[in-house]
Fold:
Amino acid sequence: MDSIRAKIKRRLSHKDKEANFDEHDSADEETVDYVNKEAEDAERENQDYGKPGSFLNRLIVSGSPFHQVPSVLTQS
Structure:
């Protein structure tokens, strides 16, 4: 299993409802902590792309345009 953290290409604020996935310099400490917690939970549950529909899942999917992600993993 590839590290979930290795799949994350962009850092965003999880409070932003209209996140711009191309803007990669807008992370705050709370968001970094939040993503790390989601990553730890996903790794513990062997979910390669995070929990479907989660912030972590959206980061991985949007940050990996050339990586084929099964659609079942991106549905909430």
In short: The mean pLDDT is 68. Residues 4-73 form one domain. The CA atoms of residues 53 and 76 lie 4 Å apart.
